[in-house]
Recover the amino acids of this structure.
C-alpha cells in the first residue's frame, strides 16, 4: 500500500515537472517568435558599450524605449536600478540576461520586484546584472563597484547554468 502511494506521488511530481517544462518551452518559443527582430539586433543588452577589461559594460545614465520591451534605463553607475540610497541596507543582484531582464522593461525584472517587496523594510536592491556576462565577468564587475555600497548586506547570484559556465570557461 505504501509503495503504491510513493509511486503515485512520484508519478504526479514527474507529471507536474514535465508539464511545467513543456509550458515554459512553449512560452520561450512564443516570446522568441514575437520578438525575433529585436532579439537578432542585440546579442546582449542594448545599453552596453565596449570595456577593455570586461568586454562590455553598461552605459551610465541612459534610458531607451525599445519596441515590445519597454523602457531600458540605467542609473549614474550603469546599474539597471534606482540610484544607490546610502540610507538603506544594500542587496546586490548579479547575473546575466535572465537577471538583467533581457526582453522586458525595467519594471518587469526580478530585481525590480524584489526591491518592491522589501523596500519598506529598509533595504534597496541594485541590479548589477549584465546580459551575456559569465561568472568571471560578474566577479570583475562586482569588484569594480562594490565600494559604492556602504551597507552591503547580501549579494544574490543569478546563474543560468546553460551558458554562464560555458561563457566563463571559454575566451568568448
Amino acid at each position: 500500500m505504501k509503495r503504491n502511494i510513493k509511486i503515485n506521488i512520484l508519478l504526479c511530481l514527474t507529471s507536474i515537472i514535465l508539464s511545467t517544462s513543456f509550458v515554459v518551452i512553449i512560452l520561450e518559443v512564443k516570446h522568441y517568435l514575437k520578438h525575433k527582430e529585436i532579439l537578432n539586433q542585440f546579442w546582449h543588452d542594448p545599453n552596453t558599450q565596449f570595456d577593455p577589461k570586461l568586454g562590455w559594460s553598461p552605459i551610465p545614465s541612459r534610458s531607451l524605449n525599445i519596441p515590445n520591451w519597454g523602457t531600458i534605463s540605467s542609473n549614474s553607475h550603469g546599474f539597471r536600478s534606482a540610484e544607490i540610497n546610502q540610507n538603506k541596507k544594500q542587496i546586490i543582484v548579479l547575473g546575466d540576461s535572465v537577471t538583467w531582464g533581457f526582453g522586458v522593461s525595467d519594471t518587469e525584472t526580478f530585481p525590480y520586484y524584489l526591491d518592491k517587496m522589501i523596500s519598506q523594510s529598509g533595504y534597496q536592491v541594485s541590479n548589477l546584472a549584465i546580459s551575456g556576462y559569465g561568472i568571471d565577468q560578474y566577479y570583475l564587475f562586482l569588484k569594480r563597484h562594490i565600494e559604492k555600497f556602504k551597507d552591503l548586506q547580501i549579494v544574490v547570484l543569478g546563474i543560468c547554468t546553460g551558458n554562464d559556465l560555458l561563457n566563463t570557461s571559454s575566451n568568448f
Q: What stands out?
A: The chain is about 40% helix and 20% strand. Strands lie at 48-51, 55-58, 62-66, 70-74, 89-95, 123-127, 152-158. The chain has a mean pLDDT of 86. Helices lie at 2-34, 36-41, 97-100, 110-118, 135-145, 164-169.
